[in-house]
Design goal:
There is one protein chain. This protein has 622 residues and is mostly beta strands. The protein has 3 helices and 36 strands. It has helices at residues 2-28, 84-89, 97-105; strands spanning 54-62, 65-74, 78-81, 108-109, 132-137, 142-147, 171-183, 186-200, 203-212, 216-228, 231-239, 252-260, 271-273, 277-280, 284-290, 293-300, 303-306, 315-325, 330-341, 348-358, 374-382, 387-395, 400-409, 413-422, 427-436, 441-450, 468-478, 482-495, 500-518, 521-532, 535-547, 551-564, 567-585, 588-598, 603-613, 616-621. The strands form 4 sheets. The chain has a 23-stranded antiparallel beta sheet, covered by helices on one side. The chain has a 6-stranded mixed beta sheet with strand order 4-3-2-1-6-5. It has a 5-stranded antiparallel beta sheet with strand order 13-19-18-15-16, with no helix packed on it. A hairpin with a 2-residue loop joins β15 (284-290) and β16. The longest helix is centred in the first third of the chain and has 27 residues, at 2-28. The two termini are 15 Å apart.
Length: 622
């Protein structure tokens, strides 16, 4: 392994050195009155054709889908369409084609800094133009077109409001999931789940069996559901409903529920999850636990990373992130996550009511109800295209709580607030702001709970979490061929067991500049400066990527200067990754990768394999 890493790092070093030497030789070839090398931003003599206009066929993607392929002329800075009329005529729901054609007749800024090169890349692939704008990926001859929503016409759907009553016979669907993680010096953990749905007419029987390394197998949920038009009736054991930004954590429930259902509706249904950002001072493996069970495990590069939450279960709950860096340093964070119905159909309201008993903490092979009865009811409404608000009431033998919130989803802005107060005069607040502009993008959130730490209160009946505060901030500026990001995160949580407070603070900036783009080869210069509690780091280096339709190769050489606990170190971190992606495999969508890393603390090899199709989704990390 050590010899292989050394060989790969030598290849990367030779590549970067040869590129730098070739650049210097080009400058040295220019006439100069002195013997010193001259650095210039212009094109060297004899290479003027590099900036000449190119004519090529480009693929046009609109709203995430391929709509057409047209001829265009482009330079490193701009792109012009040969036939804007043909392009606009192939776009759906354009209210005023003339305005859009006039805009697309002009040369368009290519916005190369906003091209997305890898799945976890933040702040890329999105524009909010005044009229229209594009992102041009020269390596794939792809143009992503963005149009201001005010130029779009509203579609009128002449469809029935409800699906007809079911006349099907008995049917069954099974889905299986398995998540595991571990290492040479770490405990191996796993969680497996088998979900089954048996349907007949408008009835469904839903069951969920799970197993983990600590508790073994058990029946987690079993309930009967009847749905007709807007209402669903459910009895048995199930998971309580949640609201976006809410403070009531999702609980396993034994009882009865009636709620508004969109399953039979043919109009709008949207499900959205809150975004979870985590600051990583080094390449790290992030394991995500819910109620002590592993639900996700992935490896992320250093920086301000947004976690992939697509496979997180629906609901509102605290997730524990167990982070293990390449240095072997371990830490954990707690984040509140919410995935629920965010927008009901316009001018309508979603209701729910639950009555029963939360499941007890004791672990048995079947659900066991606690002795405390809980009653919940709530609503979520949307009186306009962009505005909505919600409210809920919770009552148990020891506390009552009321929550109310609002949200605004505008063209370039998202606002959300949520507030809660209980019978003990404890309260909580949550605020979220996300703003996108042609010149910058910003997101910020603040979550605060205020409690008295009541010692006689049964923790299962606590409706607002113990004193804690979480803040996140991210600000980015896209430049012509670079992106600057500034980010910060703080977390404070009171721990009554030790009469103290757990604190975490991180702040930093990231600067990425493209210095070479030739065919499928892309080279970026990166600078990272971060401070995480007692750990300070500055990383400067190069990232090279060779991108093909299915095969990708990534390599990085980053010089790390680190100061931890007053100890200063310097090291050249080397990383290579080979990836294969096939979106149209007979097995479904598959992604495989092999990654080799050499840092100051350790050398490692990581294999990731991911597959998704109509039958399910799976990922293995070794």
């Amino acid at each position: 392994m050590k010899k292989l890493l050394s060989l790969l790092s030598l290849v990367c070093g030779i590549f970067c050195l040869s590129w730098l030497l070739s650049a210097n030789s080009l400058h040295a070839a220019e006439p100069s009155s002195t013997e010193e090398n001259v650095i210039t931003t212009g094109v060297p003599e004899g290479f003027d054709d590099l900036l000449e206009e190119q004519l090529a066929l480009v693929d046009i993607y609109y709203q995430g889908s391929l709509v057409n392929s047209v001829m265009a002329r482009y330079t490193p800075d701009s792109l012009s369409f040969e036939s804007p009329e043909e392009l606009v005529n192939n776009l759906p729901n354009i209210a005023n084609p003339g305005i859009l054609i006039s805009q697309l007749t002009l040369p368009q800024d290519t916005n190369p800094s906003l091209v997305c090169f890898y799945p976890e890349q933040a702040n890329c692939g999105v524009l909010n133009p005044a009229i229209a704008a594009i992102i041009f990926d020269e390596s794939n001859m792809r143009v992503d077109l963005f149009v201001n929503p005010q130029l779009l016409s509203k579609s009128i759907l002449n469809v029935d409001k409800y699906l007809p009553p079911s006349t099907s016979g008995t049917s069954m669907i099974n889905s299986f999931s398995f998540v595991a993680a571990g290492g040479d010096e770490r405990e191996e953990v796993y969680t497996a789940q088998l979900s089954t749905i048996v349907g007949f007419d408008n009835y469904r029987v839903v069951s969920n069996i799970e197993s983990d390394n600590e508790n073994g197998g058990r029946l987690d949920q079993l309930s009967l559901i009847y749905e007709y038009r807007d209402l669903a009736y459910q009895v048995g054991t199930f998971r309580s409903l949640t609201q976006p930004g809410g403070f009531y954590q999702q609980r396993d429930f034994v009882g009865f529920r009636i709620n508004t259902s969109l399953a039979s509706r043919t109009d709008l249904e949207q499900v959205s999850g809150s975004r979870v950002f985590v600051f990583l001072n080094e390449r790290s493996q992030v394991e995500v636990y819910k109620d002590g069970q592993l639900i996700d495990s992935q490896i992320y590069q250093a920086g301000n990373v947004e976690l992939d939450t697509r496979e997180f279960p629906q609901g509102a709950y605290n997730v524990e992130l167990r982070i293990t860096g390449d240095s072997g340093r371990e830490r954990s964070e707690t984040h509140f996550y919410s995935k629920s119905f965010l927008l009901p159909p316009k001018n309508e309201t979603i209701y729910f009511a639950e009555l029963g008993f939360p499941e007890a903490d004791q672990t048995e092979s079947y659900p066991v109800a606690s002795e405390e009865q809980v009653f919940r009811l709530g609503f979520l409404t949307r009186p306009s295209d962009y505005f909505g608000f919600s409210g809920s009431l919770v009552s148990n033998p020891e506390q009552e709580s009321i929550e109310f919130g609002s949200y605004w989803l505008g063209n370039q802005v998202e606002l959300q607030t949520n507030h809660s107060i209980n019978s003990e005069k404890e309260y909580a607040n949550y605020y979220l702001l996300s703003l996108r502009h042609e010149s910058f993008f910003m997101s910020a959130s603040y979550r605060r709970t205020y409690t008295d730490g009541l010692t006689l209160l049964n923790e299962q009946n606590r409706l607002i979490d113990n004193n804690q505060r979480q803040t996140t901030f991210n600000f980015g500026i896209p430049l012509s061929d670079a992106v600057l990001n500034i980010f910060a995160r703080t977390s404070e949580q009171e721990d009554f067991s030790v009469l103290g407070t757990n604190e975490y603070r991180a702040v930093g900036l990231n600067w990425r500049k493209n210095i070479l783009r030739s065919g499928n080869l892309i080279v970026d210069w990166t600078i990272d400066a971060t401070k995480e509690d007692d750990d300070q780091r500055i990383g400067i280096g190069f990232v090279a990527r060779f991108l093909k339709t299915r095969w990708n190769f990534d390599s990085s050489l980053i010089h790390q200067s680190r100061k931890r606990n007053s100890v200063e170190t310097d090291h050249l971190d080397k990383n290579v990754r080979f990836a294969y992606r096939n979106l149209q495999s007979s097995l479904g969508r598959v992604n495989h990768s092999l990654e080799l890393s050499d840092t100051q603390e350790q050398q490692s090899a990581t294999v990731q394999s991911e597959m998704s199709n109509d039958y399910g989704y799976g990922r293995v990390v070794l």
